[in-house]
Amino acid sequence: MMKHKITTLAFVSLVLINAGVIASAQAETNIVTAEEVKWGYLNPARGDKSPGAADLWGDRTKDTATGMLVRFNKGFESPPHIHNVTYRGIVIEGEMHNDDPDAAKMWMPTGSFWTQPAGENHTTAANDKNNLIYLEIDKGPYLVQPSKEHFDNGERPINIHADNMVWLHDSDVASISANGVSATYLWGDTNAVYGSMIKLPEGFSGSIVSDADEFKAVVISGKLAYLDENASKPTLLQAASFIEASGDTTHNIRNVADGESIVFIRTSSPYQVKN
């Protein structure tokens, strides 16, 4: 998977008072465009009968947090099963259903969000020609296990259709000083690591400013131009593109879609959205 490394104008400085030395390190931003994603299979043993999968960060086969893309063919429906770990999903493209095996289908479109607790029996289905989600776990490995091994870990599932999402113009999630921009909280603790989405209106031109140790962003819908003064032209970020950074960083972006764009952000501290 190719990564663009962009050096920001921000610096992280460490002052070593006793030694009388000042050391500076430039912060870097890594970008993976949707076209650069390297695809495999969620269950390699099943080959092309398995949903496609690509890790954007982390490694789903190891004991670590991971964010991945998963794509499904039209008409896909899994048999009832459980997972050993809890996961969260955001629909990027198509229509998805995730619920108890006996539940009626509720097709969730782009921008919908759900959680699947570890150990809970469920099925996953896809209804459109192209179906793509962003899936995130806090600890791996990510395994599919038979329903007979189900258990109750105390969590309860959440299914939020895009039409039921509550958008805020300013909150503890993000400091917004840009016209028409809104944010919605999804999960986590804003004093630790949490997930949210921001909605950028058509024609938006501004920046996302962060000083977080961890900052990861996935384009859920729309199209962004990522502006770097050291590059000859902007980097085009379509849906499923990925941004990763740490430290003091400023991400200069322009919404070049015919309509709004939505971005998922996982971060360890609140961020700012500015014009």
Describe this structure in words.
- There is one protein chain.
- The protein is mainly β and 275 residues long.
- 0% of the residues lie in helices and 51% in strands.
- The chain has no helices and 24 strands.
- It has strands spanning 4-16, 21-32, 40-41, 52-57, 66-73, 81-83, 87-93, 96-99, 113-116, 123-126, 130-137, 144-146, 158-160, 174-177, 182-188, 194-200, 205-210, 215-221, 223-227, 235-238, 242-245, 249-255, 261-267, 271-274.
- It has a seven-stranded antiparallel beta sheet, with no helix packed on it.
- Strand 1 and strand 2 (21-32) form a beta hairpin.
- It is globular, with a radius of gyration of 19 Å.
- The model is unreliable at 7-25 (pLDDT under 50).
Secondary-structure element series:
EEEEEEEEEEEEEEEEEEEEEEEE
Distance between the termini: 32 Å
Mean pLDDT: 91
Shape: globular
Structural class: mainly beta
Low-confidence sequence ranges: 7-25
Strand content: over 45%
Q: Specify the biggest β-sheet.
A: 7 strands, antiparallel
